[in-house]
From TrEMBL:
It comes from Enterococcus hulanensis. This is Glucosamine-6-phosphate deaminase. It holds the Pfam family Glucosamine_iso. InterPro entries: Glc/Gal-6P_isomerase, GlcN6P_deaminase-like, Glucosamine6P_isomerase, Glucosamine6P_isomerase_CS, NagB/RpiA_transferase-like. It comes from the Bacteria.
Length: 236
């Protein structure tokens, strides 16, 4: 594991953007799975600016959403809606370069990834409970590939989505499981802010356990963790 501790969130974002750009600029097909959310937001803004300054065949990059939460009466789920707004539209990603994971195709998605040449790069955040992608402590097994998590109105996950989204949650979430992520060639985990310091310490220095799903990422031979000083403040 390579650990990079940056002075602040802006520097973290610049480094993250440059790492993604270097993967994207390789002169071959590159399969990328990039997270949505607050942590990478500034990195994607920087990446959009970087793309205006470089000249390479952007069509070689293919993008895979690594989880999806279904929404009732919506064409796309929560993750695809967020990625479209935060990444695909600002960066001008063509529809044919977006490899959608959803509740209809998840059972064959590991095979699809393999047929496409495997994942080259996965960029992830970490939740306050230690989850990565959609791998929540109460549902995850380290043996899982892509899998489905059912949702019902009484579930905490359903309630959280219902409170944070203007749309009604559907009946399921699908996600890359630990085995799918660990099969990728390169992983990057980013976190910022003091609120992530406690879980970062557990994930990077505690036992490797399904109670802290992100701890399993330490088993990957090519993992880079990028933190600002606040997120790294509890590491020994």
């Amino acid at each position: 594991m390579k650990l990079l501790v940056t002075e602040n969130y802006e520097t973290l974002s610049q480094i993250t953007a440059d790492i993604v750009l270097m993967k994207w600029a390789e002169s071959r097909r590159v399969n990328l799975a990039l997270t949505a959310g607050s942590s990478p937001k500034r990195a994607y803004e920087i990446l959009a600016d970087r793309l205006k300054q470089v000249d390479f065949d952007q069509s070689l990059a293919h993008f895979y959403n690594f989880d999806e939460i279904t929404l009732k009466d919506q064409e796309y789920g929560l993750t695809m809606q967020a990625l479209t707004e935060e990444l695909f539209l600002p960066l001008g990603i063509e529809e044919e370069n977006i490899e959608v994971l959803d509740s209809k195709n998840y059972q064959a998605y590991d095979q699809k990834i393999a047929a496409d040449g495997g994942l080259d790069f996965v960029l992830m955040g970490i939740g306050s409970d230690g989850h990565f992608c959609g791998n929540l402590p109460e549902f995850t097994s380290f043996d899982y590939g892509v899998y489905r998590v059912p949702m019902a109105p009484e579930d905490e996950l359903y309630k959280m989505i219902d409170e944070s989204s203007p749309h009604t949650p559907g009946e399921e979430m699908v996600t890359f499981g630990p085995q799918t992520v660990l099969a990728a060639k390169e992983l990057v985990l980013i976190a910022n802010g003091e609120k992530k310091a406690g879980i970062i310490k557990q994930a990077l220095e505690g036992p490797i356990t399904e109670d802290v799903p992100a701890s399993v990422l330490r088993l990957h031979p090519n993992l880079t963790v990028i933190l600002d000083r606040a997120a790294a403040s509890q590491l020994s």
